[in-house]
Amino acid sequence: MQTRYLVLIILIVLSSLCGAKHSYVRLEPHEARRIAIEAYIYGYSLVTSEVTRIQMTNSTGQGVVNTPMGVFNNLRSYPPATYHGVVAPNADTLYSIAWVDLDSEPWIFSHPDMNDRFYLFPIYTLWTPVLDDPGTRTTGTPSATYALVGPKWKIPLPEKVQEKITKIIYSPTRYIVILGRTYCTGTQEDYQIVHRLQDQYLLRPLGTFIRNENETYSRSNMPAINGNPDPPFNRTGSVRDVIKNMNISTYFNIMATRMQVSSSSGKDVKYDGSIIDKRYSQALCV
What we know:
Elements: H1 2-18, H2 29-56, E1 73-74, E2 93-101, E3 107-111, E4 119-120, E5 123-125, E6 130-132, H3 136-139, E7 144-149, H4 159-162, E8 167-170, E9 175-183, H5 188-198, E10 202-205, H6 206-211, H7 239-244, H8 248-259, H9 281-284
Parallel strand pairs: 7-8
Antiparallel strand pairs: 1-2, 2-9, 3-7, 3-10, 4-9, 5-6, 5-9
Helix pairs in contact: 1-2, 1-8, 2-8
């Protein structure tokens, strides 16, 4: 019964994504089990990322990394031994973590000159491949500015913006996460140096950047763009345990919802100039 229910959900999910009418398919038990396992595995990284995003952006929570969307959470010390939000956190870097929603417009991310200090800012999609990896090894330590562009944005960035950015990074998913890390020796003196660098890690929407490229958000002035305040799962448990304890319908509902706006491959994303968000059309023409 459990397997039949699982397969039914999978078929409904797939047919809804394809715009097809629901239909019944007769499957042998072994075939149903194989499809169920493959579908579960296929969506695991997507569901894992979504649970992590909602937990981390639940700004009312008391966790180490609870911060609203679009704001860097700069950890000021090494993660405590009790933190299990990510697997095997580094013990020689300070984390700077930000979830970004690229649904309505691109965002601009910049960092200062890192003064030959080791750092990296890997940027992940919800499917968890690395979109890009700015850092000492790949881009060097000079200051840099990046445009983060989501799947709905269809036009070139304004020339005056392109002149100020180092690179455009395209994402096939609406949500991305920047998992920044900056080397620190752990001394109080070095903590202070890294804190000053962290304070200069900037994130702002394209419209804000056009108005004032130095304006940014912080916990104090950020609009309430939080994760789902009442998700159908535990907001504080370890992600692995939360998913393990999910019922079937919750798992595949999350998977189906995110698949609607999250292409697994950048090859599926097209930027043909056919649409533009009207809220920013005037600013872009300035």
